[in-house]
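During the no-cost extension, the postdoctoral fellow (Dr. R.K.) reprocessed legacy sequence entries with the updated structure-token encoder. One reprocessed record is reproduced below for audit purposes.
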Amino acid sequence: MPNTEWYRSDRSTPRPDLLKPTVGRAVRNRLRGLLPEPAVAGKTIVLYARQGLRKMSAWAGMFSEFHSVVGALAYAEAHGAAAVRVDFRSALYVDAARGPNWWTYFFERDLMPIQDRSSSGEVHLDRSLAKYGRHGGFCDVVNGTTPYLYPMTYGVPRADVHRLVASHIHVRPSILDEVARATAGSVTPGAYVVGVHYRGTDSTRRRGLMTDNQTRRVSYQAYAEEVRRALDDAAPSSYHVFVASDEIEFLEFMQKTFGDRVIFSESSPRVHASDLPIHLDRTLPVSNYLKGASAIVDCLRLAATDYLVKGRSNLSDASLAFNPRLPYSFCLR
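Re-encoded structure tokens follow.
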């Protein structure tokens, strides 16, 4: 098994050689930097769902869009915008019975005013060739110049990300109630909980100049060993391991390794490691709403743990935004 390298937020410092952007990322940053900034002062920024450049049908995932909204809020504050309005209609999550804008299925506000500023109109960021538009959101405002290393490196400090989330992005009570019920039914009061998020089916598999992040899967054993290290350091009298993953095999491996200490969200859909990612598989007998809601439940349950073991994933990054004091281990390779 190749060596696995971890950044540990409570004891590590980033390796200097990692802080320089890769060639592909440097080129991308340079090209994007040549695009003009939108004129948003005194206006309402209107965000639309993003699509990838490689496949025009490849919509951005929920928590990528979540971080784009956070980045837009930070950008709005810095550039004098009056508000941010979210209008996400991507096919991955839209449920016709719930309305056209899936953001409002999960979060209370689609319009988020900034510091009581008055709006003189809207700026619709829906152009194809634009710094912030159909193909370029505000994620890099949050993630910084080396987004494949986020949250170890970043563009917006974690405390500020949390402030923006706490001020503007309010999860619907029905989802918060589901988190509370699931936690009460599975977590022993006073137990130390290590959360582990393994993003499997939609992790990067390709190589190339523009590929920055991991190009190989990390072994299940490496994650189990890091969970064990966190438990050894804490030496709790009782503990749980909360597992959030899209892969059936990973959950089964962790159950075999940690036995009945493993807890998980039973409502979260999972597939086999060789299957399509859940949010892209339209053949699954799971509604678009449930795909999104179950992901938020997992995110918030990870945020409520005592220590988080994670890889490069917007879902578990959002957990750190909801809980800015949560220590974590981040798998670098």
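The radius of gyration is 20 Å. The first strand starts at residue 6 and ends at 8. The remaining legacy entries will be reprocessed before the final report is submitted.
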